[in-house]
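F.,

This is the one I mentioned.
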């Protein structure tokens, strides 16, 4: 227990502990520890569980940095990963081996917005003695993975939780026992790998956390409005709040209805050239920024196949359904979302996405 012991700032600080306690309360876990970035949380959490000869079963549609870590880096440590369609529970179970230690997924996947059945995955993990680790960056407050049976919940605090795109951060939420292991001065992955959060950043994120509940409601409200309009216009639109989403009913069962279906949606512009033209025009019209982050108060858009998922080989992108014309939107906090839609629609007409 690090509380009251501030001998070494890489171990912990008062501000870091306060932020961790607040995030643990949000997710319903015993405690939490914060890190300098989202990847600074994900990588030590995985390495604390896994060593040479161990195996991980992971969703194939995950953040590109996580994919690269599991695909290219952990094999150097003797850790292998099988990537599966996380929505196919039979495929998930078939991938489990006697050496499997961790089942890893995102609650809502980046960038395809596939929804993990966390309750079913938790039962599968328990059956085989695995740890279920869930990255909940895309769905804070909307989904509570720990309460659905996950063992570890992680976030990139850089995104929705901080909400102003002015700092980086990560968090690991779990049991007191696991967090103590991560902080152990002799063999704790967080302590020894050194991705520690700066105290001033922790205080800043804690301040912004106080408005998260208000912001998520508005992100969700605006995303639902745009998704419904885009779909009605005939665009291929993916948003968990749409009844056309294959996991709409699953998300609806898991969600906290007060906070909606989140602020992330995708459309398909047909090809990368058209997608780039559309994004550049929307940026020119001050509808948002062509940027790879998310959770900002302004709308952000990017083509993930050539940005946040570029670490995934093209043939694997095609296999999972990640087309080069896909545009990922992080919908902002616009007060007049109808006006935003009309302006976005005009941009789509001008570049030929809509007629």
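My design for it:
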């Amino acid at each position: 227990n690090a509380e009251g012991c501030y001998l070494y700032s890489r171990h912990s600080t008062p501000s870091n502990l306060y932020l961790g306690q607040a995030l643990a309360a949000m997710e319903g876990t015993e405690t939490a520890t914060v890190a300098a970035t989202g990847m600074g949380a994900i990588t030590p959490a995985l390495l604390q569980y896994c060593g040479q000869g161990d195996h991980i079963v992971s969703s194939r549609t995950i953040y590109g940095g996580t994919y690269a870590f599991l695909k290219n880096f952990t094999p150097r440590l003797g850790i292998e990963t099988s990537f599966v369609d996380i929505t196919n529970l039979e495929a998930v179970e078939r991938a489990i081996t006697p050496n499997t230690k961790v089942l890893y997924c995102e609650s809502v996947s980046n960038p395809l917005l596939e929804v993990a059945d966390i309750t079913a995955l938790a039962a599968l993990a328990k059956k085989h003695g695995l740890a279920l680790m869930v990255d909940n960056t895309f769905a804070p407050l909307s989904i509570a993975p720990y309460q659905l049976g996950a063992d570890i919940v992680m976030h990139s605090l850089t995104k929705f939780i901080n909400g102003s795109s002015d700092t980086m951060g990560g968090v690991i939420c779990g049991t007191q026992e696991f967090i103590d292991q991560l902080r152990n001065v002799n063999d704790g992955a967080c302590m020894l790998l050194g991705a520690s959060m700066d105290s001033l950043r922790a205080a800043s994120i804690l301040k912004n956390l106080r408005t998260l509940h208000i912001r998520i409601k508005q992100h969700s409200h605006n995303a639902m409005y745009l998704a419904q309009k885009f779909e009605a216009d005939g665009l291929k639109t993916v948003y968990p709040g749409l009844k056309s989403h294959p996991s709409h009913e699953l998300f609806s069962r898991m969600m906290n209805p007060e906070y909606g279906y989140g602020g992330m949606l995708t459309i398909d512009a047909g090809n990368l050239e058209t997608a780039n033209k559309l994004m550049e025009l929307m940026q020119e019209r001050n509808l948002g920024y062509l940027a790879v982050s998310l959770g900002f108060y302004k709308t952000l858009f990017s083509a993930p196949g050539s940005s946040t998922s570029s670490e995934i080989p093209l043939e694997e992108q095609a296999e999972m359904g990640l087309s080069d014309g896909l545009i990922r939107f992080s919908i902002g906090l616009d007060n007049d979302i109808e006006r935003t839609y009309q302006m976005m629609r005009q941009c789509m007409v001008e570049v030929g996405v809509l007629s």
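The longest strand covers residues 100-106.

Talk soon.
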